[in-house]
Specification:
The complex is a heterotetramer, with two copies of chain A (165 residues) and two copies of chain B (168 residues).
Chain A: H1 2-24, E1 28-33, E2 44-49, E3 56-57, H2 63-80, E4 85-89, H3 97-110, E5 115-119, H4 123-126, E6 131-139, E7 142-148, H5 150-156, H6 161-164
Chain B: E1 2-9, E2 18-21, E3 26-30, H1 37-47, E4 77-85, E5 100-108, E6 113-117, E7 120-122, H2 124-134, E8 143-144, H3 148-154, H4 157-167
Antiparallel strand pairs in B: 1-2, 1-4, 4-5, 5-6, 6-7
Classes of the chains: A alpha+beta (165), B alpha+beta (168).
Bound molecules: adenosine-5'-triphosphate (2 copies) and magnesium ion (2 copies).
């Protein structure tokens, strides 16, 4: 219904305007409806500027900045209508170390709300986990899953992998 | 309703029976390229009622059945069971008295499907309704698949509204 | 022209069938024309199976396997019609360490042909470089570029980044 | 024809004059998210004759002119110069006697453009022809931009043929 979409949009937009500067340590962003008159079909535009930079189309942002902006939007929707669990598959892939830390800080702040399942290749993100599973394919084409400790998991994606390969 | 455990048999690369126990807080899944991590995500979406093979990277739903490797024969069936802890009592009326709720899905090469809630046969619709009732349903923003972050940015504004509609 | 497309397709396909198993340390792949009768409009399909796995649609491959397959195709075209230089912007991003090493080995084998410019966040890929440039934005929004040594570059993407951020 | 050096002034985030010298072999470019690495790739494509703003992540070509920051005013013009070593004599006839070949491009906020080969004004067509003649032209497969690897996989087969056509 129009009313529900409008309410959701406003709530998510308000959350997004608050969350983006948290994730980027500054800057600002907002959502804009492309057609205010037609709430059932309007599109949603994202306007964003990282700290110190000028507001311009998100197409000009870097790969990492685009990813962090999308993460801010996903988390904003999630905070407005939380699900009991949230499954994230390698969303930290385009982020440099500083941004991975900010992403991880945000996950920590949301753990109270929900259960998180994170698939990652990133050693820092692994440190967030209360339990870690390593997936392997010793027999080609057949997956196995084992509980692993943090240092084992970090080795899995670290230097020792060439020895295994 | 928090995730308790996931069991896969014959689902994509998980040819042998595999069980994962989820913690409260954060569960991490790691491993090399192609070892099966995203297949776990596909399994969770599938057992929760995903109806489109494309959303599971396949062209037919049969693509989720283990189709053989150098050393193993293809399987005739794929099964996934997902168990939820319901001690917060959030499950819909019919199920609120259960401590645990398990949904199960099977697909045979013949194309036949079976669905289960707490081992009792049911319809796909019953599984989907169960999740809608709890607010757990496969909301796009609660299962963020590999590559979805990029598509939010490249999406046309008219397609992007879909994410917000799911929360409305 | 039809004839030139056919010749190019066959040459690239032959190169791709040779390169894929090198990059994947096994397995096989090939290109297939969707419409052999209509060479001016036919599409190009990719069929691939990593070592030990069964041949199936590339859509079912993992994120890293898809990336490595695309890299094999790009390099195959490049080897058939080399350019004097090749500019690669973060193509190693989805690859785990074992695959980054294979990608780097392949780059090394092609250095004789052409000049390479690699943009990367990966410490191992940096080791390939004869000269490294670090790009920074100490003043928000204004890029600067400086020559850096390998250990400086690795620190840039490593642990010290949180201190800077 | 190998790359010798690149000079940027007012191109995207490179507000101040920046010069990069390329080695034979491998040149690596590193740095945090958003610092300007891919902007260097855009600059090379632009000075070699890129005509589509979309291929440079913009909507208008003016998007390549430094548009200001918290501490800096917007610039009125963007300039990029790319110098090639021509000691292998591969350049087309008109230029084969030069040891170096430099292409330059300027864009003013007014929309006016200027093009140069070895500091001599020329048309955009002359720059594009120069590169076609050497086989260096902005072949899609010799400048692999961020995200292109993904689009090869997701491309429709009819769109994927384009990469092969470029080599034909
Ligand atoms: N029905 C099936 N039978 C057997 N194997 C399958 C089936 N469907 C997919 N696979 C295999 O599963 C593998 C993909 O696994 P998955 O996408 O989970 O990898 P991943 O661990 O997420 O890797 P990455 O880190 O690269 O994203 C592919 O190699 C594919 O061939
Ligand atoms: N005309 C312009 N004027 C000023 N800044 C610009 C202009 N065009 C783009 N930018 C800025 O350049 C930055 C993008 O830089 P770039 O894409 O080169 O980053 P990157 O180093 O490749 O990062 P990543 O590692 O995330 O891919 C953006 O923050 C964008 O705002
Ligand atoms: Mg994956
Ligand atoms: Mg970039």
């Amino acid at each position: 219904s129009r009313k529900r979409f409008r309410e959701t949009f406003d709530a998510v937009n308000s959350q997004f305007q608050e969350l983006f500067p948290k994730l980027f340590r500054g800057g600002r962003a907002k959502l804009v409806l492309t057609d205010e008159e037609n709430l059932l079909e309007t599109g949603v535009e994202i306007i964003a500027s990282p700290p110190g930079k000028k507001l311009q189309s998100i197409t000009l942002l870097s790969g990492g900045e685009k990813a962090l902006t999308a993460i801010a939007l996903i988390f904003s929707i999630f905070l407005i209508k939380p699900s009991p669990f949230c499954l994230l598959d390698e969303v930290d892939a385009p982020l440099d170390d500083a941004n991975v830390d900010r992403f991880n800080d945000m996950i920590r702040s949301m753990i109270g709300h929900s259960q998180f399942i994170l698939i990652t290749h990133n050693k820092r993100t692994m440190e967030l986990a209360d339990v870690l599973y390593g997936v392997t394919m010793e027999e080609a084409g057949a997956s196995k899953m084992v509980s692993v400790r943090l240092n084992q998991a970090q080795e899995m994606v670290g230097e020792t992998q060439t020895a295994v390969a | 309703m928090r995730l308790k455990s996931l069991e896969l048999i014959g689902f994509k690369s998980f040819v042998d029976r595999t069980v994962i126990h989820f913690e409260e807080g954060v569960t991490g899944i790691v491993g090399p390229n192609g070892c099966g991590k995203s297949n776990v995500v596909d399994a969770i979406r599938w057992v929760m009622g995903e109806m489109s093979a494309k959303h599971l990277r396949g062209s037919d739903m049969q693509d989720v059945i283990f189709n053989g490797s150098e050393t193993r024969q293809a399987m005739g069936m794929s099964q996934v069971y997902l168990t939820f802890d319901n001690s917060d009592g959030r499950a819909p009326a019919d199920f609120s008295k259960y401590n645990e709720i398990q949904v199960g899905r099977r697909l045979y090469r013949s194309g036949e499907s079976e669905y289960f809630i707490n081992k009792t046969p049911c319809r796909l619709k019953d599984i989907i309704d169960l999740f809608l009732g709890t607010g757990v349903g496969t909301k796009a923003y609660s299962v963020v698949e590999q590559g979805m972050i990029g598509s939010i940015i490249t999406a046309k504004p008219e397609d992007r509204r879909f994410f917000l509609e799911e929360a409305a």
